[in-house]
Amino acid sequence: MKQSIIICGLAAAILSSCNSGDKLAAVAENAVKPTVITEVVPNDTDDPAIWVNPKDSSEVFVIGTDKHEKTGGLYLYDMEGKIVNQVTPLDRPNNVDIAYGFNLDGRIVDIAVVTERGTNKIRVFTLPDLKAIDNGGIPVFEGEKDRSPMGIALYTKADSTGNKIQAIVGRKTGESGRYLFQYDLIDNGGTVVGKKVREFGKFEGGKEIEAIAVDNQLGYIYYSDEGFGIHKYYADPAHGNQELAVFGKTDFKEDHEGIAIYQSSDSTGYILVSNQQNNSFNIYPREGVAGNPNQHQLITEVPVSAVECDGADAISLPIGSKFPKGMLVAMSNGMVFHYYDWQIFQDSINAKK
After folding, report:
1. What pLDDT, on the 0 to 100 scale, is given for residue 353?
2. What is the annotated signal peptide range for this record (predicted)?
3. Total-model pTM
4. Secondary structure in 3-state letters for the chain
5. Model confidence pLDDT, tens digit, residues 304-353
6. Lowest-pLDDT choice from 14-18, 92-96, 267-271, 317-321
7. What is the rounded CA–CA span in Å between residue 314 and residue 330?
């Protein structure tokens, strides 16, 4: 059964690429092959996140969005790529992120937060049961002419009563300097509400901002300014809205898309960014270069079998014999997500050293 899922999923992804015309690069002959391809969803996969059970690290799930108006959804996959839980329908869910240790009415829970573009809200669900705890959703970009939330990343700060969690939300269209809004997620007697704490984020205006990632340990936010580059800011609003870096401006065929952070240690690792129209990932040093933590130079580019990847996530935790150094999860055309063995990426990085 597993083998048939993988073959069918890959065939669907390749067929989708072929039917999309010349604007898409074909999958390269030397492209990294996924270890697992998930079951197909009804509409259009967009963005994944990885959750590890804090009480049992052998229990790992991938959470992914199925993007469609009125009939979209949020899906939970096991490590074989099988769908084991879902929330449907949602109205055009775009991106998803997860956070650990939220204090919900005296109970510590892990959460998945999703942008629901059709309702101009973010949705909050407990993990892994995907129970809604937001009373129908938290409105975002209220009072703005352009709302339409797309990208999301969660920033966590340790707190004596549980973790303080903030959502950084992007939208389809926004003004440079205030394209992203940041919200405190607050428990209100067992229901999560939001309070805006910051507006920030430069935008070059060429396309849009969707992919956002937070490095909780180092305290940074990265986001893809499609067709321009990757911006870097402090995650904590108390540190101000100074832009720390823009990188990758000349390294991409066209769009800068999904961002994943792989942690080799507390302070080292890699930033992976989807080179969407080249069906590859560009890899940068998480720690920057010697003497300058905000200088991120391209290490290598790795071609993948995922077609036109929008969203990605990575984890360095060993996950059984298939993923001994962790994995990268990438969205692919064909309504699927790919699970890649991290060691293949590490081998490519090592070859460049």
Report:
1. 76
2. 1-25
3. 0.92
4. CHHHHHHHHHHHHHHHHHHCCCCCCCCCCCCECCCEECCCCCCCEEEEEEEECCCCCCCEEEEEEECCCCCEEEEEECCCCCEEEEEEEECCEEEEEEEEEEEECCEEEEEEEEEECCCCEEEEEECCCCCECCCCCEECCCCCCCCCEEEEEEEEECCCCCCEEEEEEEECCCCCCCCEEEEEEEECCCCEEEEEEEEECCCCCCCCEEEEEEECCCCEEEEEECCCEEEEEECCHHHCCCEEEEECCCCCCCCEEEEEEEECCCCCEEEEEEEHHHCEEEEEECCCECCECCCCCCCEEEEECCCCCCCEEEECCCECCCEECEEEEEEECCCEEEEEEHHHHHHHHHHHC
5. 999 999 999 999 999 999 999 999 999 999 999 999 999 999 999 999 87
6. 14-18
7. 9
Task: Assign 260 a pLDDT band (cuts: 50, 70, 90).
Answer: very high
One-letter amino acid of 154: L
Q: In what order do the strands lie in the sheet with 192-200?
A: 149-157, 164-171, 180-187, 192-200
Look up residue 164 and give its two tokens.
């303080």
Residue 230: count of CB within 10 angstroms of its CB: 24
Reported as a pLDDT band with limits 50, 70 and 90, residue 9 is very low
Q: How large is the average pLDDT for residues 183-194?
A: 98
CATH number at residue 346: 2.120.10.30
Which residue, among 60, 145, 65, has the nearest Cα to 110 in the 3D structure?
60
Nearest to 100 by CA among 49, 138, 66, 64: 49
How does the average pLDDT of the chain come out, rounded? Answer: 92
| CB contact at 8 A, 37 and 9 | yes
Domain coverage including residue 258: 2-352
**pLDDT mean over 78-88:** 98
